[in-house]
Amino acid sequence: MTSPPTPASAPTSPSARIPPTPQARESSTYASVRRLLRATRVSRGYGSGHGRVAAVDDVTVDFDPGTLTAVMGPSGSGKSTLMHLLAGLDRPSSGGVTLGDQDLNALSDDDLTRLRRDAMGFVFQAFTVFDDLSVAENVDVPFRLARDVAPADPQWRAHLIDALDLAPLLARRPTEISGGQQQRVAIARALVHRPSVVFADEPTGNLDLATGRSVLALLAGLAPTQGCTVVMVTHDPAAAAVADRVLVLADGRLVHDLPRTDAATLSQLMLAEVAR
Ligand SMILES: Nc1ncnc2c1ncn2[C@@H]1O[C@H](COP(=O)(O)OP(=O)(O)O)[C@@H](O)[C@H]1O
Ligand SMILES: [Mg+2]
């Protein structure tokens, strides 16, 4: 009952699995308002003096609503740091990040938390599930935490549960399902409130091949069908090849900004970056 829904020949057409739900899209209580995400000359350094590391170094980039952007680069090139800055999980040493007309630097920690909760979804390798809640309750955590958030759009919630093959597991506790299934629960929870921006850091890293493909198809489907902005860090050229755009970081700097690129070309590019 728990095998992933995606056949081995993936990525499948994600839009076939996740039709848009226009009535929810137009609901102003959902956060799915299309807002441009923009980093302007952002830098983030760690340490001081000779030990100073520029984890992100003067990066300027826009992310259009309705697009999936992959962020690649060697280990330590600043991918996670950039994503944390874009998500307001970390504040830049200099430069700024805006989402629509909101300047993240200008927000208090509370307002930033609220913005993240309402407008952003996070798919990270280190995910959290609550052992004392059922799978279904775990998926609905965004609505349990905040009384002012509109309840889940049932159609959208059902799509996620189907796409992540969670239906047979809804009544179980996290302790009664596998690690990969727990991760799928966390992914459903990250998307159930229809965020305008989804950040994924190595989302397929811990998953088996078939589940990884279905998660990738789900993420790829969010952009065109939900008008969502998806930013996905990955070292996997096959994953990055489904993106509309590929950014490559090296030593904290943006060194390539490519339109959709095939996996073989991306592999070559990554080998060249690692060898530099
Ligand atoms: N909290 C931190 N303290 C000190 N250095 C850090 C911290 N986080 C990241 N770095 C350094 O910043 C650089 C970029 O890290 P990171 O963004 O995690 O890279 P990536 O995700 O591409 O592997 C690395 O040199 C890393 O060691
Ligand atoms: Mg990282």
UniProtKB/TrEMBL annotation:
It comes from Jatrophihabitans endophyticus. CDD domains: ABC_MJ0796_LolCDE_FtsE. Residues 1-29 are annotated as: Disordered. GO terms for molecular function: ATP binding; ATP hydrolysis activity; transmembrane transporter activity. Gene3D superfamilies: P-loop containing nucleotide triphosphate hydrolases. Transmembrane segments: none annotated. Residues 37-276 form the ABC transporter domain. The lineage of its organism: Bacteria, Bacillati, Actinomycetota, Actinomycetes, Jatrophihabitantales. The keyword Membrane does not apply. Keywords: ATP-binding, Nucleotide-binding, Transport. Pfam families: ABC_tran. This is Putative ABC transport system ATP-binding protein. The keyword Nucleotide-binding applies. PROSITE patterns: ABC_TRANSPORTER_1, ABC_TRANSPORTER_2. GO terms for cellular component: membrane protein complex; plasma membrane.
